[in-house]
Amino acid sequence: MLFDAIRNGTNYKKYVNGAWQATQTTIPILSPIDGAELGGMPAMTRTEVDDAIASCVAAQKPWARKSLYERGDILLQGAQLLRANAPEIADLLTREIAKDHKSCLLEVTRTADLIQATVEQGKALVGEVVQGGVLDADTRHKTALVTRVPYGVVLAVSPFNYPINLAASKIAPALLMGNSVAFKPSTQGSLSALHLVRCLEQGGLPAGVLCTITGEGSVVGPHMMAHPDIALINFTGSTGVGQKIAKGSGMIPLVMELGGKDPAIILPDADLARAVPHIIGGAFGYAGQRCTAIKRVIAVGDTADRLVPLLQQAMADIPVGNPFDDPLVTPLISKKAADYVQSLIDDARAKGADVYTTGKRQGNLLYPTLCDHVTEDMALAHEEPFGPVLPVLRVSDTAEAVALANRSEYGLQASVFGRDVDVLLDVAEQLDAGTINLNGKTERGPDNFPFLGTKNSGIGVQGIRYALEASSQLKSIVIHRG
Ligand code: NAP
Predict the structure, then answer these.
(1) pLDDT tens, position by position, 231-266
(2) Among 183, 245, 311, 477, which residue carries the largest CB count within 10 Å?
(3) Residue 359's pLDDT is what?
(4) pLDDT value of residue 392
(5) What fold is seen in the domain 4-258+458-477?
(6) What DSSP string describes 393-419?
(7) For residue 398, with 0-12 CB atoms within 10 Å meaning exposed, 13-18 middle and 19 or more buried, which class applies?
(8) Does ligand 1 come within 6 angstroms of the Cβ of 43?
(9) pTM score of the predicted model
């Protein structure tokens, strides 16, 4: 019932200026599981994008004039609706992005928690008073009142793999801090994302404070990112698209969560019984379609001789199949994605890697594959596959492992497995990545941790408090006494 308003038959509507409106053209959204058509997504024109952003502009200042508590209460109502409708949304999410159903349900409830924690954390944000006379005694008569103010209209762009969580993690802090938001979801995942918007809208958002922009990113993207009324872009997606946005957006602040090639470094003294389940879950969860998936193992010394047989054994038990059965490996998001992963495996095999797999493939569903003796001339050593394939690279010592890990355009996360705390900390210090996990898999969260990438893995920091800070700017009012 709640969601009847967001579609007309099977076609979904755009949400602009406080109203759900039908559009001329729609893009069919098919399920990666079986190709079933799930609905039509509005393919908005440039004029429609302009209208959406104009309504965000008109709504922003009155919204910012409300108290943070008022804005927070509205977001909390939205979170409540999200929680209440989690089963229905998770069901659609499972069909739309082929992630296992249990994880989809968790994504929705975790997002309601994230919104709640964002509001609580936002209430704790306070300004500060900075006193003059510190560097120069003659400035003692000056006092700065430093506060946080919104940017204006934030463009939030999210990827396909977490359509609810990675949308809300941008929208909630931006709205709480007094911005309005033009939200562009990934086309695959957009139906689920519109359900999030409906929950937030029903929570009581004033017209225009949140609008949707839908349509193929390559079509609407160049226009929306260069729009003069966009004051901040918060983007999660591939490094390639992130680079296009950086080039096309002009001189506005950017927050970007991009691709990764997270290594798991296995030191000679690592507890392999502990490491193996982390590597399996880290590499193959949601078929490897996570920015923080373990995307390469770097094994030091003779570790690989002991590790590879254990990984092979564990891989035999990985559940594969229909997302509604909650397996680890599910169909990839598209045939194109599956073909790409297959091409990386074929290239590694042709160049001499030992490939362990059942070799089975059903449409987009690729079975988990381990490639040993991978070398840097193989694309699999450095490309982000976003699929269920794990390369093992062998190095002779720890220094070589660190050098190889850092020889990447990416720097999202890394894992290091070993027993000697001094060595673990030493390696962590040398790794060029946003987060280093010691004796645990690479992963995002919990949502209050800082989340960031170095090099081509990102710009700025996410994570509840950090996202609130990133969604607002400092403003200093200086009082001159006497
Ligand atoms: P993507 O292809 O880069 O798409 C991300 C978003 O950008 C989508 O909404 C997409 O819309 C839009 N887009 C596409 N072309 C655009 C353009 N020219 N201008 C503006 N927007 C454009 O990424 P994806 O395949 O959805 O997600 C997978 C990638 O995201 C991986 O590289 C992964 O590592 C990364 N990721 C990173 C994080 C992180 O936190 N670091 C988290 C999750 C995912 P359409 O869908 O309409 O094309």
Answers:
(1) 999 999 999 999 999 999 999 999 999 999 999 999
(2) 183
(3) 79
(4) 98
(5) Aldehyde Dehydrogenase; Chain A, domain 1 (3.40.605)
(6) EEESSHHHHHHHHHSSSEESEEEEE-S
(7) buried
(8) no
(9) 0.97
pLDDT tens, position by position, 13-48: 999 999 999 999 999 999 999 999 999 999 999 999
Task: Indicate if ligand 1 lies below 6 Å from the C-beta of 384.
Answer: yes
Q: Which two tokens stand for residue 204?
A: 């009581």
CB atoms within 10 A of CB 290: 21
Which residue ranges make up each domain of the chain?
Answer: 4-258+458-477, 263-451
DSSP string, 185-246: --STTHHHHHHHHHHHHHTTPPTTSEEE--S-HHHHHHHHHT-TTEEEEEEES-HHHHHHHH
For the Cβ of 459 lying below 6 angstroms from any atom of ligand 1, the answer is no
Residue of minimum CA distance from atom 11 in ligand 1: 217
For ligand 1, what atom is nearest to the CA of residue 457?
41
**245 CB near ligand 1 (under 6 Å):** yes
pLDDT at position 427, please?
98
Residues making up the chain, counted from first to last? 482
Q: Say if ligand 1 is within 6 A of residue 184 CB.
A: yes
Catalytic positions, written as ranges:
257, 291
Residue nearest to ligand 1 atom 43, measured at CA: 291
**For ligand 1, atom 30, which residue shows the shortest CA distance?**
237
Could you say which of 3.40.309.10, 3.30.70.660, 3.10.290.10, 3.30.530.20 is the CATH number of the domain covering 263-451? 3.40.309.10
Distance 183 CA to ligand 1 centre (A): 13
One-letter amino acid at 36 equals A
Token pair of 407 as six digits: 């020889």
Q: Give the pLDDT confidence of 163-196 residue by residue, as tens digits.
A: 999 999 999 999 999 999 999 999 999 999 999 9
Q: What is the pLDDT of residues 278-305, one digit of tens each?
A: 999 999 999 999 999 999 999 999 999 9
The response to whether residue 385 sits with its C-beta less than 6 Å from ligand 1 reads no
> How many angstroms separate the alpha carbon of residue 188 from the centre of ligand 1?
10
- Is the per-residue pLDDT at 360 higher than 90? no
Token pair, residue 218, equals: 């390559």
Q: Report pLDDT for 311.
A: 98
